[in-house]
Structures are given as structure tokens and as C-alpha cells.
Amino acid sequence: MKYCEARQARTFILRLEDGDIVHETIEQFAREKKIQSASLIILGGADDGSKLVTGPRKAREKPIVSLHSELEGVHEVTGTGTLFPDQHGHPILHMHLACGRENRTMTGCIRRGVKTWHVLEVIVTELTENAARRLPDAETGFELLTIPRPLDAPVPERVVQPR
Hints:
The protein has 163 residues and is mostly beta strands. Helices cover 7% and strands 49% of the residues. The chain has a single domain (8-146), classed as CATH 3.30.1330.80. It has one helix at residues 22-33; strands spanning 7-17, 38-46, 51-56, 66-70, 75-85, 91-101, 104-109, 116-128, 133-136, 143-146. The strands form 3 sheets. Strands 1-8-2-5-6-7 form a 6-stranded antiparallel beta sheet, with helices on one face. A two-stranded antiparallel sheet has the order 3-4. It has a two-stranded antiparallel ribbon with strand order 9-10. The two termini are 27 Å apart.
């Protein structure tokens, strides 16, 4: 496990409008307000045809092959996410939604394009004074949350087990 501390700063209340693409709209807002890091919660409706990443095809397959699913019909949604800058300093949203319709639920990552149905409510809590970034990971091909070891942190000792 790796960690760093952060401070809560500004809090924003957003209302996404009908047809807004969730990740595009939130990332644009973050750029405009100069938000680098944040935690988010969201609820409302996702429109028919919204797309989710719903897992890898196989657990340990290399390269990783993502599964994609499309919502059929309007779904009620709730979700949570984080926003951290990439290697170029651009805020990148990672958010998962649970999307329900009648007695079925689909859960997944919104990066493929979730469209707002009438309204989505989002609370953005800005996080400051942290070193977390989304950096390219050669093994997975993803931009993964990376937390550098603080300069004052002790280097972990390696324990060698006798054979």
C-alpha cells in the first residue's frame, strides 16, 4: 500500500444537463476551475446507449482486454470517483457507476461515454496538498494512480526468509 495526505479545499455542486457526457463535462469543469485532485459522488439518470467498461475479459490476461457494455434504456445511477492529474497535468476522472433498471443492475467505469438523462447531480470535493498522479503503467497499459514515496519516508526493509 502507498499513501499520501491531502487537504479538503473547495466543494462544488454540479448539475449535469441532458446529453452531457459525464467524464468530458467534469474534466472540462476541473480545467476551468483549476482543480487538480478531487473526490466525487454522483446520482441521477444515465441515458439509453451510454457505454461502460465492465471488466477485463480474463483476470490475468496479457495484454488486458476490456469488456464493454451498453445501457439499453434509461437507468438510475449512483457512483463515486476520483480526479487526479495525468503526466501532463490534465485532470483525469476515474469513476464507476452502478446503473439500475427494473430488477437489473450493471456496474462499470464511465470512460467509454455515459450520457446524462435529464439530470445528474455531482458533488466535487477538491483535494489539495498531495502528490498523487495518474501515470502510464507499462504492464497494464492504464494510467494508474501513482503515489510517490515521500522524501522523509523510511525505505522499507526487505525481509529475506531462510531457505
